[in-house]
Backbone:
């Protein structure tokens, strides 16, 4: 358990004074070196090397706080917002880069989270999302082989470190006919898609206060439908 | 408990006798057992990051060491190895390749999470009860190579752990997805995600050391479908793989 070394040591022949005794009983020093540790003054320097503290001795929420956000509803996103041409197959990093500022937040696919003190150990984010197609989506327009929807994580509006989270989908049924492609392109169920993901954020440099994690969408499809999603945040302090 | 001899009335108080009391007090406080503290006695102010025993996996793992990511569609990983069958630990290395082989391949040598050998379990003094494994793979191409597009082909993925001499598959972590494949040399892409989540415990590792984990993948097709051409393959252009040591109790 906690380790202290009294500041006052008396040897034979020393003059014992009240202040010196008080130093051992109560002294507001850091690290705590008096009997004050019994009153809760124990701090990090008092721990012996290699101490293992049992979980039940630690207050709930002392090191972690977690939140979750989930919803089921049809969220339809039309291409009015996006300027990505339908003749561009955006399934390429280079094409995506040109339209990075077109990503739009998906309603309820994300949530703010609070960092109690700067530089937490890490923030763990996980999500699952279902992009549905009931066969009634607007599939008109050019070849759907060039239509695509991206889902990607943004934290505090930035996706720089989250390229690995980008997932693509072709949410529209293809009404066109391609030689030898008819099976794959016309099966509705293949156009629906489950997308799951997770990410760690190294807490170094993460400021104290509120932050925001969101899944965002970039698309050049006529219509994209997000049906269900859950988004979890775990902050490890 | 603190064992102290209290001065009594009439005792002569000298520097030495007072020091005896403080010496006993100091030793007593320092020898208090953890159980002498009340439940939930400690909060974040009593610790710092070192209180998190991620360093149980020694050397201490930074976030980047237990979280591996990749995202580059210009340089995807392409796997040609065939699924070896359920609960089969045949392993053929990591990264693109595997033509003609029937085994698992790691998705990327850089995605292996390795650490000094340790044991997992409820009885371990290190209190490491398990390692939570997570992987998300973005599958962007499944090619049967010359097979008509009316047959489904698939992708299997799983976790493997390293015991110091061999990689062992975790059968409960195996996941599978299927899609009508591209055929011939068509360059169309598919858009699918394979997700793995698994708590690695001593149910899998037993009394063995564990010194690494990784996600593995294989091309899969059923016996009723025509055998793919000479170069069936599956492509992965993004992944997220994590191993989170869980200390408890």
Residues:
């Amino acid at each position: 358990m906690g380790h202290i070394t009294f500041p006052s040591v008396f040897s034979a022949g020393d003059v014992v004074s009240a202040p010196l005794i008080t130093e051992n009983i109560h002294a507001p020093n850091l690290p705590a070196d008096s009997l004050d540790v019994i009153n809760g003054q124990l701090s990090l320097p008092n721990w012996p090397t290699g101490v293992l503290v049992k979980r039940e001795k630690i207050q709930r929420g002392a090191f972690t706080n977690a939140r979750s956000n989930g919803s089921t509803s049809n969220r339809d996103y039309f291409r009015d917002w996006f300027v990505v041409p339908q003749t561009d197959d955006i399934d390429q990093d280079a094409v995506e880069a040109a339209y990075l500022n077109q990503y739009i937040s998906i309603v309820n696919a994300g949530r703010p989270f609070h960092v109690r003190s700067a530089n937490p150990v890490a923030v763990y984010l996980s999500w699952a999302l279902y992009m549905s197609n009931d066969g009634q989506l607007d599939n008109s327009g050019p070849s759907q082989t060039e239509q695509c929807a991206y889902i990607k994580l943004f934290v505090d509006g930035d996706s720089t470190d989250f390229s690995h989270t980008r997932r693509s989908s072709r949410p529209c049924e293809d009404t066109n006919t391609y030689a030898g492609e008819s099976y794959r392109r016309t099966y509705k169920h293949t156009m629906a898609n489950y997308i799951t993901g997770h990410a760690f954020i190294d807490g170094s440099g993460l400021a104290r206060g509120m932050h925001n994690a969101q899944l965002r969408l970039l698309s050049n499809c006529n219509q994209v439908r997000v049906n269900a999603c859950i988004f979890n945040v775990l902050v490890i302090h | 408990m603190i064992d102290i001899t209290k001065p009594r009335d009439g005792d002569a108080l000298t520097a030495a006798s007072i020091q005896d009391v403080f010496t006993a007090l100091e030793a007593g406080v320092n020898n208090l057992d953890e159980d002498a503290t009340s439940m939930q006695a400690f909060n974040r102010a009593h610790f710092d990051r070192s209180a998190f025993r991620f360093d149980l996996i020694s050397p201490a793992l930074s976030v980047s060491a237990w979280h591996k990511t990749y995202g580059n569609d210009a340089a995807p990983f392409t796997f040609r190895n065939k699924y070896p069958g359920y609960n089969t630990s045949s392993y053929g290395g990591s990264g693109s390749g595997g033509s003609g082989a029937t085994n698992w391949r790691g998705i990327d040598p850089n995605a292996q999470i390795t650490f000094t050998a340790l044991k997992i379990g409820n009885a371990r003094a290190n209190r490491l009860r398990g390692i939570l494994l997570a992987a998300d793979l973005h599958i962007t191409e499944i090619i049967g190579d010359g097979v008509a597009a009316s047959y489904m082909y698939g992708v299997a993925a799983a976790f493997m752990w390293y015991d110091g001499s061999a990689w062992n598959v975790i059968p409960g972590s195996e996941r599978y997805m299927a899609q009508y494949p591209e055929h011939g040399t068509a360059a169309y892409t598919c858009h699918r995600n394979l997700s793995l989540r698994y708590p690695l415990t001593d149910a899998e590792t037993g009394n063995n050391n564990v010194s690494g984990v990784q996600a593995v993948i294989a091309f899969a097709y059923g016996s009723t479908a025509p055998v793919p051409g000479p170069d069936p393959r599956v492509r992965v252009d993004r992944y997220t793989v994590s191993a989170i040591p869980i200390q408890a109790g």
About this structure: The beta strands of chain A are 64-78, 104-115, 122-131, 149-155, 167-169, 193-202, 209-219, 223-236. Helices of chain A lie at 18-25, 93-98, 182-186.
